[in-house]
């Protein structure tokens, strides 16, 4: 029973990391209705920045996300969907290769932001696992408060949902989209710094994490930040339990793929996503 409880709590901790990346994916989707396949590699690159200069990482990641939107994504706003998908895949490869070129492909240790013997660590959950859950919930609460109770957050929501009407009332939609990408970049950096102490730091560290985060975002609802966080926790728990007791560690990644396919078949909008019906 204790082993099962440990796997359950460890799954929650892992799910917190997936939830952070899923939250970044949802923020991009809410801003542009596009899925950023390069989000994992952007988070990985930000983590390398954190390894090199810890204090500036989140701010630089915000700027990086904003610049990607302004320089790469905005000129593609009228392009076919397939062209945008190719651009995202190209961004994924660019960040992957750039990180390897700048920092090397040798696996590096990344220190946990939480002290190993902190008071909140227990026999069942390490201080890092407890901290990862707490940070994820805190980030979700901050984002919820920002979008719900601040004028800038409301303007960003309006620009994403109805850009034409937003322009008519004086909202600079372009700047709002840039801010959305910047915030997603910052959230991705936080997720990367939570992942690196667990899986170690190397250019390929976010590959599996991004897949689990996609699964979490789809399970919870790609247009629902709270749903994405809950979906990330669900995927983390299922991955740990099924991987430990059913399929084994070698097939754990299959759990995410099965979840993605299952959700798309049964409920494409996710648990908390909105189903939009258009009359024609």
TrEMBL record:
The lineage of its organism: Bacteria, Pseudomonadati, Pseudomonadota, Betaproteobacteria, Burkholderiales. The chain crosses the membrane at residues 48-68, 80-103, 130-154, 175-199, 205-222, 229-247, 253-273. Keywords: Amino-acid transport, Cell membrane, Membrane, Transmembrane, Transmembrane helix, Transport. This is Branched-chain amino acid ABC transporter permease. Its main location: membrane. It is a multi-pass membrane protein. The keyword Protein transport does not apply. It is found in: Cell membrane. The keyword Transport applies. It comes from the Bacteria. Belongs to the binding-protein-dependent transport system permease family. LivHM subfamily. Pfam families: BPD_transp_2. Coiled coil: none annotated. CDD domains: TM_PBP1_LivH_like.
């Amino acid at each position: 029973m204790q082993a099962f409880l440990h796997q359950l709590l460890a799954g929650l901790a892992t799910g917190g990391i997936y939830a952070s990346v899923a939250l970044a994916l949802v923020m991009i989707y809410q801003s542009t209705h596009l899925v950023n396949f390069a989000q994992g590699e952007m988070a990985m690159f930000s983590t390398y920045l954190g390894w090199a200069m810890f204090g500036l990482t989140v701010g630089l990641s915000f700027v990086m996300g904003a610049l990607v939107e302004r320089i790469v994504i905005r000129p593609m706003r009228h392009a076919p969907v397939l062209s945008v998908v190719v651009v995202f895949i190209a961004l994924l490869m660019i960040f992957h290769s750039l990180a390897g070129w700048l920092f090397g492909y040798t696996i590096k240790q990344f220190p946990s932001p939480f002290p190993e013997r902190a008071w909140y660590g227990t026999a069942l959950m390490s201080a890092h696992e407890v901290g990862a859950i707490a940070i994820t919930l805190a980030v979700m609460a901050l984002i919820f408060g920002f979008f719900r109770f601040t004028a800038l957050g409301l303007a960003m929501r309006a620009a994403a949902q109805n850009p034409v009407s937003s322009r008519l009332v004086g909202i600079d939609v372009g700047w709002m989209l840039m801010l959305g990408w910047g915030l997603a970049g910052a959230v991705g950096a936080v997720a990367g710094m939570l992942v690196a102490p667990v899986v170690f730091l190397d250019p390929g560290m976010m590959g599996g994490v991004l897949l689990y985060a996609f699964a979490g975002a789809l399970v919870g609802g790609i247009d629902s930040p709270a749903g994405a966080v809950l979906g990330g926790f669900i995927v983390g728990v299922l991955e740990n339990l099924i991987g430990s007791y059913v399929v084994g560690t070698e097939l754990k990644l299959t759990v995410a793929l099965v979840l993605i396919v299952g959700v798309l078949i049964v409920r494409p909008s996710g648990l908390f996503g909105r189903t939009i019906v258009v009359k024609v």
